[in-house]
Automatic annotation (TrEMBL):
CDD domains, A to Z: GMPK (cd00071)
Enzyme Commission number: 2.7.4.8
Species, as recorded: Umezakia ovalisporum FSS-62
UniProt binding sites for ATP: G27, P28, S29, G30, V31, G32, K33, G34
Keywords: ATP-binding, Cytoplasm, Kinase, Nucleotide-binding, Transferase
The protein's name: Guanylate kinase
Record-linked InterPro entries: GK/Ca_channel_bsu, Guanylate_kin-like_dom, Guanylate_kinase, Guanylate_kinase_CS, P-loop_NTPase
Family: Belongs to the guanylate kinase family.
Domain Guanylate kinase-like: 20-198
Top-rank lineage group of the source organism: Bacteria
Length: 199
């Protein structure tokens, strides 16, 4: 059972500093979540980005501790058993999870904390973590999503088919989220995220 964090805020006056808040960015694989997140953090270094843990292998250019914490399956399962994750899920044969302690500490200290996570994890957090702002990133079309996944040249035909099948299911869940943004143009999508966070 996940802990629900009471978000602390100074409620004496409407002009008080903003309390911390958890922001979840999700969407199907290949939609551009990672690129949007990188650009958002360049523009807003005051945001706290929570680095997820995963059992998948690093992709070219990915750095341990910066893009993900790359850990073994047995280590991940040990951390699950110890209750160290705020959320976790299995996706495309690998585990992904959000380390709990750092996120809770940052939110309680008044920071905007952004998570870029898979749909299942996003659902877990929406259920257990009240006050979360959830953003779903959509592709312009499934054909465009397929082109982007193929363009990464990292997946077998089998894996691409699985990702596309999963993407269709995930897109149907977009209405569960507070905000839906179509990533048809990186600049426009980034502006829409900024308007949602800081508008």
């Amino acid at each position: 059972m996940m802990q629900v964090l009471p978000i602390q805020s100074d409620a004496h006056t409407k002009e008080s500093p903003s309390p911390g808040r958890l922001i979840v960015l999700t969407g199907p694989s290949g939609v551009g979540k990672g690129t949007l997140m990188q650009e958002l953090l360049k523009r807003h270094p005051e945001l706290y980005y929570s680095v997820s843990a995963t059992t998948r292998s690093p992709r070219p250019g990915e750095i341990n501790g910066q893009n993900y914490y790359f850990i073994s399956r047995s280590k991940f399962e040990q951390l699950v058993a110890q209750g160290e994750f705020l959320e976790w899920a299995e996706f495309a044969g690998n585990y992904y999870g959000t380390p709990r302690e750092a996120v809770l500490n940052q939110v309680q200290s008044g920071k905007l904390v952004v998570l870029e996570i898979e749909l299942e994890g996003a659902r877990q957090i929406r259920t257990s973590f009240h006050g979360t702002l959830s953003i779903f990133i959509l592709p312009p079309s499934l054909n465009e999503l397929e082109s982007r996944i193929r363009g990464r040249a990292q997946d077998s035909e089998d894996a691409i088919a699985r990702r596309l099948c999963r993407a269709q299911e995930e897109i149907q869940a977009a209405d569960e989220f507070d905000v839906q943004i179509v990533n048809d143009d990186l600049h426009n999508a980034l502006n829409a995220i900024e308007a949602t966070l800081f508008g």
